[in-house]
Amino acid sequence: MRLGEIGESGLIARWAGRVTAGPGVIKGIGDDAAVLRLGGRTLLVTTDMLVEGVHFDTAYAGWRDLGHKALAVNVSDIAAMGGCPLWAVIALGLPPSTEVEGIDEFYAGLLESAGRWGVSLAGGDTVRSPQAVVINLTVIGEAAPEGVLYRSGARPGDRIGVTGPLGASGAGLHLLQHPVSNLPPAIADTLRKAHLRPEPRLAAGAILAGSGCVTAAADLSDGLAADLGHICDASGVGCVVKAAALPVAPAAAELARVTGMDPMEWVLYGGEDYELLFTASPETGGELEGLMTEAGLSCCWIGKITADGRRLLQTPDGLRELRPGGYSHFPADGRDME
Fold first, then answer.
1. Residue 272: which region, alpha, beta or left (left: phi > 0; alpha: psi -120 to 50)?
2. 326 or 337: which leads in pLDDT
3. 12 with 328: CB under 8 angstroms?
4. Backbone CA torsion sign across 305, 309, 315, 318
5. What angle do CA 275, 280, 281 make, to 5 degrees?
6. pTM to 2 decimals?
């Protein structure tokens, strides 16, 4: 059997049941971060790898942007679990031809962002990579024991929410790969920044966790359809998403207008928006929305959780299956590769 035959999700499922959680492991495989107990503290641990030619292209991603993004994607996982990031360790695989000035720029972006998000860089490793640049960061954070957010708590009848507009990162990637000349510079800059320098929603994650209203949560890294699928899988539920309620990023809508593309492809399947996706009961949804509004943050309700296990998209033409879509490293998942 080859990896391409079972795909990424198949590989995870193959090993998840064989990994025995040791002492202190509250939650292992299957969420945005592992949850560990150390003394009286609840720690969150997440790791993410960026590979040149798979996750980024140096033709349009600068070294400083890579430093920022490598940390941001991990901090976003901590935010999705309702935690606060504390420490990071980094492993770099670098070809010998790599320019040292580029590495200096990478660390400048990394340390600048670490300062903003309160993360201390605690160490790491550097090795030779034959061809591609490989960046791996591990971030350790902390959460209140009663405030950790998981993917597995969504219940039938819950409302589905997101913390902000979607599609800008997917549209930004499209623009970077297929430049257009008739897009206003401000719109183009917004889209490129959305993809190259994402902002983890730490403040929103803290409010969601502290509210006591949220039943499940995840960050939007693989795409709305895929990440909502993760919550449904973990919770044993289905969903109905209202297409008309999906908040389309204005810059993405403008690029779609200029290029004649469908912005819903970026909203549902583009990925890397790093907004937070969450569920809450109808009874507490208003309270949660009020807390977010009071903090100057967005709370957009886009659908509901159902009991039948189906994933549906409600459109003006009726209900249709919400295809998995989103990013997948291996096509056996039934999702598009990017």
1. left
2. 326
3. no
4. negative
5. 160
6. 0.93
Dihedral Cα 324, 325, 328, 330, nearest 10 deg: 80
Do residues 156 and 305 lie in contact, with contact meaning Cβ atoms separated by under 8 Å?
yes
Helix then strand count (H, E) for the chain reads 10, 13
Q: How far apart are CA 71 and CA 288, in angstroms?
A: 28
| Residue 54, Ramachandran bin (φ over 0: left; ψ between -120 and 50: alpha; else beta) | alpha
Residue with tokens 């996982």: 77
pLDDT digits (tens, 9 = 90+) for 281-308: 999 999 999 999 999 999 999 999 999 9
At 182, list the tokens.
Answer: 């008739």
Amino acid at 277: L
> Per-residue DSSP letters for 147-158?
G---STT--TT-
Could you tell me which residues come within 8 angstroms of residue 108 by beta carbon, excluding any fewer than 6 positions away? 64, 67
Query: H or E stretch including 122?
Result: strand 120-128
Contact partners, residue 181, CB within 8 Å, separation at least 6: none
Supply 92's token pair. 């770099």
